[in-house]
Design a protein that fits this description.
By secondary structure, this protein is an alpha/beta fold. Helices cover about 40% and strands about 20% of the residues. The strands form two sheets. Strands 6-8-7-9-10-11-12 form a seven-stranded mixed β-sheet, sandwiched between helices.
């Protein structure tokens, strides 16, 4: 896997928006015309013009034509610069009237963490110059006391705060940092799913720092995004309305452990990434890796929704919070089958000792 040596290094000109591409196109056209204006087509002069007078006439004609190219080229270049400066002036006015706001949502349940330094440029999304509105979803006490239903109620209050912030600021973006129980991360994603797209980041537990997933165009192109290998079992019991989906990204989900919870099932879908080994907690480097896996999950849920025999999806997941949260954001209660997301804990017996029921918005003790 290729990694950039300096994370702050980006080819920003490759990530310009449509208006900038228009300006670059006009500028490029002008440059081509100017370059062409100084180039004579000697082939036409000597092949198609066989006498001196014809050559002289053709030379003058070419010079006249090249002068026109030069004028048009300079005009296009000047126009591209004017358009670009007008855009910059408009952006300055817009940002002054409607400051850019970042609604930074940090969900912590397993351990307390701090927000990243928003004034520091990394290979992740650049939030310098944003007005930061931190939202803390603190679930540490709920987790210690195993009061997960109260954690869900707390999420509902947080969603109200997020909605109020969104309504009071026109120019805003959302970002998510999470280190909590998987069902709670999925739940928060579901509750935020009707909002605009959300930037997500991973926590590196070894280095105790946030990994800001790269948005660099070059980095996202070079690092090959992974896809789940999907294995679908044959029908186990036709009368069962339950589908089991196990997702292994950092650790392998044991099928035997899943069957201890749901022994009677219709089908078993196994989704996994290659080279899991003994666990790869910090395997994602770019935002495209997260987005591609999220889209694959959404497509699978869409497919499941077309099977009338399936009523409930039992989701067993081993992976980072960022991906489980994104799974929640693409889940639709009006389209997809009900999902029950299970929590894994090696200290519990069975390992999956409780779960989150999306339809009931409640915690199930097993």
């Amino acid at each position: 896997m290729f990694e950039l040596k300096y994370k702050q290094f980006e080819f920003k000109w490759l990530r310009v928006n449509l208006y900038n591409k228009f300006c670059v196109g006009i500028f490029t056209l002008g440059s081509i015309l100017i370059a062409d204006s100084f180039t004579l087509n000697w082939w036409n002069l000597f092949v198609f013009n066989v006498n001196v007078s014809s050559i002289e006439l053709a030379y003058n004609q070419v010079n006249d034509f090249n002068t026109v190219e030069l004028v048009f080229g300079l005009t296009f270049i000047v126009l591209s610069i004017v358009f670009f400066l007008l855009k910059k002036k408009y952006e300055s006015w817009y940002n002054a009237k409607y400051p850019r706001n970042l609604i930074a949502i940090k969900q912590q349940g397993l351990q307390a963490t701090s927000f990243p330094d928003f004034n520091k440029k990394t290979a992740g999304k650049d939030f310098r110059g944003f007005c930061i509105h931190p939202i803390l979803v603190d679930e540490i006490d709920f987790d210690k006391n195993k009061k997960y239903k109260e954690a869900l109620d707390n999420q509902d209050r947080i969603i109200t705060d997020v909605t109020n912030l969104k309504n009071s600021h026109i120019n805003n973006e959302l970002a998510y940092w999470g280190i909590t129980r998987i069902p709670l991360a999925f739940s928060l994603g579901v509750k935020l799913s009707d909002t605009q797209s959300i930037n997500v980041f991973d926590y590196n537990r070894n280095k105790q720092v946030w990994n800001q997933l790269s948005y660099s165009w070059l980095r996202n192109k070079i690092i090959r995004s992974k896809k789940f290998t999907v294995k679908k079992s044959n029908i186990y019991r036709c009368s069962s309305p339950d589908l089991i989906i196990s997702i292994s990204t950092t650790f392998n989900v044991s099928k035997s452990e899943c069957l201890k919870i749901v022994p009677d099932y219709y089908k078993f879908y196994d989704l996994s990434l290659s080279n899991i080994g003994n666990g790869k907690r910090d395997r994602f480097k770019t935002i495209s890796e997260i987005n591609i896996l999220t889209e694959q999950f959404r497509q699978l849920m869409d497919e499941v929704a077309t099977d009338p025999r399936i009523k409930t999806v039992h989701l067993f997941y081993a992976g980072p919070n960022s991906l489980s949260f994104k799974f929640g954001t693409v889940y639709s209660e009006s389209i997809h089958r009900n999902v029950i997301v299970y929590n894994y804990n090696t200290n519990d017996t069975p390992c999956f000792s409780w779960a989150y029921d999306v339809a009931k918005d409640d915690i199930l003790s097993l």
